[in-house]
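Justification of computing resources. Each target in the renewal requires a structure prediction run like the one illustrated here; the chain below, 157 residues long, is used simply to show the kind of job we budget for.
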Amino acid sequence: MMHPILIIADEASARGVADMLQRELDMAVEVVSTRRAGLAALRRGDYSLLLLEEGLAASDAEATELLYQKALATPVLELNIALSGAPRVLRQVRAALTRRTYDQAQAREAAAIELKSSLTGLLLESQLALREAQPGQSAKLRHLVELAGNLCDRLQA
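Resulting structure tokens:
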């Protein structure tokens, strides 16, 4: 599920871009007209992208820095929406969303590799412990080997 795009810009210049993004990307777009409303929106929910009007960003560096901090992993694009034109905004938004999708896939892949490595180590160690186990411990260790093996198999799929 894709989270919506958040646009922080005056309503008049943002509405046309928001409608175009909704139509072209088939995504929800939320428009707020102030940095304060943008901060509140970022506290309430997650967004795929934050599109920030350049003029608002430039008018208060401290407030803009706070927006970037609250955005966390949400990519932020600063554009002069009125001057950029719809095609340019669309290209840049698509590129940012594509990059975010790519970065998320890379992170998932790296996490899966790390998890596979840890589970393989756990499986091997539990198999070795099972070989040396006392009769009272072998049932529990056999169960541990089975669980680790099942997790490894699920990660392979």
